[in-house]
Amino acid sequence: MLTLIQFPWSPFCITIGHILTRHRIPFRLHNIAYHDRAPIIKATKGQGHTVPCLIDGKHAICDLTDFGQEVARYVDRRYRLNLFPKNLDGLQLILSRYIENDLESVGFKVNDTYVIPTRPLIERTMLIRHKERKFGRGCVREWTTHRRYLCA
Fold this sequence. Notes:
The chain is α+β, with helices and mostly antiparallel strands.
């Protein structure tokens, strides 16, 4: 049986979970705290640290590239789901890059304004630290203030 290691609020994890559920592929969920990547690091023998991480027997897969579709492509190949049809390769590449670059950044900002305040203190602090290192001090507060604009 597959095990999906995830942050339950991660859009990438939610997508993989939906793919598995939709195709009636049995799996277990292993929710982890944002600041505790040990289960992923152990499963991948130090090769990865990102979610989603899928464990299939003794094999662990996580997204290692910036493009990050390794887990979805593994599930697609393993279960022959045809999620990435050859005849749509070019179009899928364009759409995936648009989604990754333009939509994802806004989606994560809005998502973070709802999720981060609900996390326990240590996890919340580590999430804010991570976001501020990437986007600047006070970014989560700013996104919360501008949530309506971001959603538009």
